[in-house]
Specification:
By secondary structure, the protein is mostly helical. It has helices spanning about 5-60, 65-90, 90-120, 125-145, 150-160, 165-199.
């Protein structure tokens, strides 16, 4: 059975705009966390390189330990160089700002759609159809302004809000979160492991 225009407008406001807005909020939060983690990694590896360099200076240059510390310093320097290039190219802060701009515009659009619903009885069918079409186009323009969010943002929204189908997503969501943080812990543990292995 075909949807009425009111049902289509309610679907645009309640499902498409609201879910996209909330998911973009989750994406902004994730990008800000990623930006913080990338800053911590860069600063941590900068400290590690400096610590290894200073350590190498106070050791006897002919000792095996000094050579190992110098090797660790080189490994940490290359790691820092690669991490800095990778993390800066990902542009987490810029993406977070784009998601923020997107969800603020979606919030205003949601208000416009709700206003159309409140005033629908005072408008002709032609006016309603025209305004609805313009609002749909505005929605498409807004979501085109930034990268699409990741599935993990949608999963988090579904799980946090206990929306229909969220139970099926929990294992996939929590698996991804655990893998991400295991990778982060591994990145922070590498210098410690190098010290244990080479000294």
């Amino acid at each position: 059975m075909a949807k009425t225009i009111v049902e289509e407008i309610e679907y645009l406001a309640g499902d498409r705009i609201w879910k996209t807005k909330k998911t973009r909020m989750e994406a902004e939060s994730r990008m800000n966390r990623n930006d913080l983690i990338s800053t911590l990694i860069t600063n941590y590896y900068t400290f590690v390189v400096l610590a290894f360099s200073i350590w190498a200076l106070i050791l006897d240059p002919t000792s095996t330990q000094a050579k190992n510390v110098t090797l660790m310093s080189v490994i940490a320097s290359v790691g820092l160089f690669g991490a800095t290039l990778l993390l800066s190219s990902l542009g987490y802060k810029g993406k977070a700002l784009q998601y923020r701009e997107s969800y603020l515009k979606l919030d205003a659009l949601e208000s416009d759609v709700r206003n159309l619903l409140r005033n629908i009885q005072f408008k002709s069918q032609k006016e309603v159809n025209s305004e609805f079409h313009a609002l749909e186009q505005k929605y498409n323009e807004i979501i085109a302004l930034s990268d699409n969010h990741s599935n993990i943002d949608h999963f988090k929204l579904m799980i946090d809000r206990k929306l229909e189908g969220s139970e099926k997503l929990k294992s996939s969501y929590y698996f991804r979160v655990v893998v991400k943080y295991l990778i982060v812990i591994t990145v922070f543990a590498i210098p410690v492991v190098l010290v244990v292995i080479f000294t």
